[in-house]
């Protein structure tokens, strides 16, 4: 019988025959390999050295100006049966997709190095982890994958043991937006990405594997692959609850995962532990609870807005050994973005800074850093069995209507809350910014199959013996009449998490409303908080006519997934609508 690695070497040979690189390099994941790659990229200009006195081991990468975000309109899920991709995905027949993209790969690596990157998503010894191999011609991708995944020899050994791995093929190509595709073949556990060097399009372990392909695998194997942060909240008595939260791209996952408790809470002994900031894989344990791992080993975080005031943990994490992408520079070559003190000298495209050209840093500029550099990195973040989840939180940017926090009455109601969440779009994907769109479970760009089947899968976790987390919906982005945020957000979000934990432990009563359970007046700790007069009342109000209109919109949206919409979800929406009608 052929060795399990022979399958891999045969695939590498096939890809090399198609792409015709000058060299093939198998990545071992060592420090020496990383240093050599950095030196090579400094020589070619792919990386620019930052001020090594203030930022040792830090470099800047400037992407092509047309290649700065995920491209959802060029992202395809290629299933044999079109229905299985669902109305939530762009679809192409597998044979057509392979033909189209293989034509682009033909000879595309001539004169370049083909890198083979074996990687493991999740702790190397965890039964929840899954492996993949990315082939790429981009040294920038290799360097980022080294930070974001467990890459190299250990992953290769696991692949040799298990045999199974996700195949990802990537080439930067000509960076021509007309010749750019991100294609997924869930039935083949394969990904092909051409024409972009940007994060979610090119670091295939991240969104392509750990969400689109993994969500498909998770459905067949009985687990969940979600666009969620994982954070541990330790109370003054030393008890830690783990919370998983799904917010759409650029809506606050990294910030919540690294939250700094407000002064009063710090004094009392509250602590926050970071387990993950973007992706969460969960499955039921023997005790019926959901256990979660972070499949990633690093953070690919949004730079703008990161400051001592908002996220000093992130700022401390990125003080050394970090790759910055599309940020601006100060006169003494330090990385800079909107939200930091000081002034930029050079913008993200390398031009002398001129406010007439827009922000100095690209709004979707990013940092790539090892999770181990985070001061609040959880001692349990690499537990093979994962951490037990006490609460699941959904949320998005909703300038109106959605209260600061509400709790679902049960799992089905929670699934409805997640399935109908919406958010204003952000710079994390190309296209208009600030438009409300529905983004179920923050997975609209990432669910690798039909949303109707996905909702059914979520509902299926409610079964005998299950001890499911409580489900909440939050909104840090409510605005007042003056257009300003009503809630200070960031560290103060712990006040809302404390209430959730009190609910989980049965210590807070809450008040039942037709749309969910809200904090009773006085249950939310607001000492030391400077809120505008009336802001708290507004944040916790239930606007019945507004909700009736929302429920109508939700109904129309859910029906877009008929005939695969689970009846249970339709019934749940009707129940909430009826409760609202009774309330009038
Ligand atoms: P992705 O990496 O794209 O998935 O994003 P993310 O969900 O991790 O978002 P992140 O935490 O990086 O935050 C994105 C933006 O939202 C930043 O500009 C933050 O400053 C801002 N933000 C985060 N949390 C809050 C909050 O509680 N209130 C307000 N007003 N803004 C916030
Ligand atoms: C997101 O857009 O949700 C990100 C960045 O986390 S990317 O890796 O591009 O998906
Ligand atoms: Mn994300």
From TrEMBL:
Catalytic-site annotation from UniProt: 251
Cofactor: Mn(2+)
Cross-referenced InterPro entries: PEP_carboxykin_GTP_CS, PEP_carboxykinase_C, PEP_carboxykinase_GTP, PEP_carboxykinase_GTP_C, PEP_carboxykinase_GTP_N, PEP_carboxykinase_N
Positions of the Phosphoenolpyruvate carboxykinase GTP-utilising N-terminal domain: 10-219
Entry keyword Phosphoprotein: no
Pathway assigned in UniProt: Carbohydrate biosynthesis; gluconeogenesis
Residues that coordinate or bind Mn(2+): 207, 227, 278
Residues annotated to bind GTP: 250-255, 366, 397, 490-493
CDD domains assigned to the protein according to its UniProt record, in alphabetical order: PEPCK_GTP
GO cellular component: cytosol
Keywords carried by this UniProt record: Cytoplasm, Decarboxylase, Gluconeogenesis, GTP-binding, Kinase, Lyase, Manganese, Metal-binding, Nucleotide-binding, Pyruvate, Transferase
PROSITE patterns assigned: PEPCK_GTP (PS00505)
Catalytic activity: oxaloacetate + GTP = phosphoenolpyruvate + GDP + CO2
Cofactor binding, note field: Binds 1 Mn(2+) ion per subunit.
Enzyme class (EC, first level): lyase
Family, per entry: Belongs to the phosphoenolpyruvate carboxykinase [GTP] family.
Described purpose of this protein according to its UniProt entry: Catalyzes the conversion of oxaloacetate (OAA) to phosphoenolpyruvate (PEP), the rate-limiting step in the metabolic pathway that produces glucose from lactate and other precursors derived from the citric acid cycle.
HAMAP family for this protein: PEPCK_GTP
Subunit structure comment from the entry: Monomer.
Name the UniProt record assigns to this protein: Phosphoenolpyruvate carboxykinase [GTP]
Organism: Fulvimonas soli
Gene, per the UniProt record: pckG
């Amino acid at each position: 019988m052929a060795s399990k690695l022979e399958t891999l070497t045969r695939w590498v040979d096939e890809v090399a025959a198609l792409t015709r690189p000058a060299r093939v390099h198998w990545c071992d994941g060592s420090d020496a390999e990383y240093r050599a790659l950095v030196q090579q990229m400094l020589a070619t200009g792919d990386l620019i050295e930052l001020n090594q006195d203030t930022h040792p081991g830090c470099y800047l990468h400037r992407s092509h100006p047309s290649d700065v975000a995920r491209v959802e309109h060029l992202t395809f899920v290629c299933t044999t049966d079109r229905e299985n991709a669902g109305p939530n995905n762009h679809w192409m027949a597998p044979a057509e997709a392979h033909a189209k993209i293989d034509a682009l790969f033909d000879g595309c690596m001539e004169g370049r190095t083909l890198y083979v990157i074996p990687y493991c998503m999740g702790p190397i010894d965890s039964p929840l982890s899954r492996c993949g191999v990315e082939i790429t011609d981009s040294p920038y991708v290799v360097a980022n994958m080294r930070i974001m995944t467990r890459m190299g020899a250990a992953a290769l050994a696991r692949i040799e043991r298990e045999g199974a791995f996700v195949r990802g093929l990537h080439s930067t190509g000509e960076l021509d937006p007309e010749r750019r595709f991100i294609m997924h073949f869930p039935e083949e556990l394969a990904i092909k990405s051409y024409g972009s060097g940007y994060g979610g399009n090119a670091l295939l372990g991240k969104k392509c594997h750990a969400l689109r392909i993994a969500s498909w695998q998770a459905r067949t194997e009985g687990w969940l692959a979600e666009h969620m942060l994982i954070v541990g909240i330790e109370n003054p008595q030393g008890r830690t609850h783990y919370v998983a939260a799904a917010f759409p791209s650029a809506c606050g996952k990294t910030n919540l995962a690294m939250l700094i408790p407000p002064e009063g809470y710090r004094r009392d002994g509250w602590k926050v532990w970071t387990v993950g900031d973007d992706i969460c894989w969960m499955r039921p344990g023997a005790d019926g609870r959901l256990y979660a791992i972070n499949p990633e080993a690093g953070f690919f975080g949004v730079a703008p807005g990161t400051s001592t005031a908002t996220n000093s943990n992130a700022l401390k994490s990125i003080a050394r050994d970090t790759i910055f992408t599309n940020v601006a520079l100060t006169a003494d070559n330090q990385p800079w973005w909107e939200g930091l003190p000081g002034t930029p000298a050079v913008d993200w495209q390398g031009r002398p800074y001129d406010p007439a050209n827009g922000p100095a840093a690209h709004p979707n500029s990013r940092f790539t850093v090892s999770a181990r550099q985070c001061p609040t990195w959880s001692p349990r973040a690499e537990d093979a069995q994962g951490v037990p989840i006490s609460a699941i939180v959904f949320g998005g940017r909703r300038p109106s209507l959605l209260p600061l926090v509400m709790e679902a009455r049960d799992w089905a109601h929670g699934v409805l809350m997640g399935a109908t969440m919406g958010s204003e779009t952000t710079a994390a994907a190309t296209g208009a910014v600030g438009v409300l769109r529905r983004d179920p479970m923050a997975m609209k760009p990432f669910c690798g199959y039909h949303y109707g089947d996905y909702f059914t899968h979520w509902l299926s976790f409610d079964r005998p013996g299950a001890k499911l987390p409580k489900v909440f919906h939050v909104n840090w982005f409510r605005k007042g009449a003056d257009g300003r945020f009503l809630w200070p957000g960031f560290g103060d979000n712990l006040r809302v998490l404390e209430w959730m934990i009190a609910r989980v432990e049965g210590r807070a009563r809450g008040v039942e409303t037709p749309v969910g359970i809200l904090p009773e007046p006085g249950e939310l700790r607001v000492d030391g908080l400077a809120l505008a007069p009336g802001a708290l009342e507004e944040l916790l109000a239930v606007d019945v006519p507004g909700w009736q209109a929302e429920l109508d919109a939700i109904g129309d949206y859910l029906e877009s997934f008929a005939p695969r919409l689970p009846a249970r979800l339709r019934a749940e929406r009707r129940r909430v609508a009826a409760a609202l009608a009774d309330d009038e």
